[in-house]
Amino acid sequence: MVSDVPGTAKKRVRDPEARRAAILAAARTVFAERGYAKATIREIAQRAEVTHGLVVMHFSTKEKLFLAAVPGTRDLADSVQGDVEGLAGRVARSYVARMESADSADPFIALVRSAAADQHSAKALLRAMREESVNAYRAVLEGSDVPLRVDLVGAHLIGVTFSRYVLADGPIAAMSPEELTHYLTMSLRGILLGCPGGDLSATEAASSRS
Amino acid sequence: MVSDVPGTAKKRVRDPEARRAAILAAARTVFAERGYAKATIREIAQRAEVTHGLVVMHFSTKEKLFLAAVPGTRDLADSVQGDVEGLAGRVARSYVARMESADSADPFIALVRSAAADQHSAKALLRAMREESVNAYRAVLEGSDVPLRVDLVGAHLIGVTFSRYVLADGPIAAMSPEELTHYLTMSLRGILLGCPGGDLSATEAASSRS
User: What's the burial of A146, exposed, middle or buried (CB within 10 Å: 0-12/13-18/19+)?
Assistant: First the structure.
């Protein structure tokens, strides 16, 4: 598929960015509908109206395509970036904005729904998401326990996703997006920065204000 | 099964407390092995070496038996009770002690594992657990948002249970019980009391110190 002058092709691919976006949109739909294990690159390519080869050229594997399609990984670095004080609020707003716009058809929801039934895929995907997340958070947080804190943020978001979008029952499911952002900010602050006071000396990781 | 003089029987039931404990232990095992939907009172009775009728007499329904057997509901009021400042630590210690002693064979783990596949049971059980929890927390916390906070605590513990005991992968799974208690205390503080400082006015619910 690649010509002898790669990188200089101009007319052959009309709008690579639009095709990439179409692949990602198709991937979101197929992962959300089928779950990770049953989704195939072939079906995603068909939905996006591109060839199988083009999907592989852009994303190489199903796992990489999932990680690019799932919210919270690709743009995570952007929402994390900034001062420590506002970190929890930025992460909360970014999570809520993405999940609410996805209208319950989101690959992360599919992952949480099928994780217990397909532990092998879930472990691999969550490991990859964890790694990307830790790298992003390290730009803002210091301390040897950043991986632990990031994993707790992940567990919290898995639990909230489960309550609000999978079971869709109870107070978390009934909250407005604004309320959810408010309460998530509060809980993520506790996890990421620790709370001053009490018997905890867990605030040292929050001291890396830039 | 009940004689004409209920409450005064002495010799017929040798040790009612031991039988009740045997039923609960059997229930924990069967719920953990089969999940809620597939577990039957009949099998639980057989494991406990008591009659089906005795289980019904003690617990009336499978749902009530589950709620009695699952850690964190029956004794929740005890661990919640006390001053607001130490609340998060007490809840964290109680959760960790129960989950670690259960050796991954716990009905709550089974519930989290099977919740996505059996949403109907999961909703009913989590609703009942939520109700009991809210009642317990109201003894220590004030504010109209106590149900929201309690639901967030539940979501957090679902996410942590999922990472540590269902997928059993990553930093949360690798932590020692002491580390887990430390970090859970920190995140539960954020959820239950909010963190002072920042742009949140979420600390008013923490002002009900007795």
Answer: buried
Nearest CA in chain B to A189: B190
Q: What are the tens digits of pLDDT across the range B163-198? A: 999 999 999 999 999 999 999 999 999 999 886 544
Cα separation values, B176 from B89, B97, B131, B179, B184, Å: 16, 12, 31, 5, 12
CA torsion, points B178, B182, B183, B185, in degrees to nearest 10?
A: 130
- Taking alpha carbons only, the member of A123, A84, A205, A150 closest to residue B168 is A123
How many residues are listed for chain A in this entry? Answer: 210
The answer, for A90 touching chain B at a CB cutoff of 8 Å, is no
CATH architecture designation of domain B16-60: Orthogonal Bundle (1.10)
The tens digit of pLDDT for each residue in A50-92 reads 999 999 999 999 988 988 887 655 577 888 989 999 999 999 9
CB contact A127 to B (< 8 Å): yes
Q: Does A17 touch chain B (CB under 8 A)?
A: no
Q: At the topology level of CATH, where does B70-206 sit? A: Tetracycline Repressor; domain 2 (1.10.357)
Q: Which residues of A10-26 are buried (b: 16+ CB within 10 A; e: fewer)?
A: eeeeeeeeebbebbbeb
Residue B188: its chain A contacts at CB < 8 A? 190
Where in the sequence of chain A do the CATH 1.10.357.10 domains occur? 70-206
**Test mutation, A85, A91, A119, A167, chain B, max B CBs within 10 A:** A167
Delimit the CATH 1.10.10.60 region(s) of chain B: 16-60
pTM score: 0.79
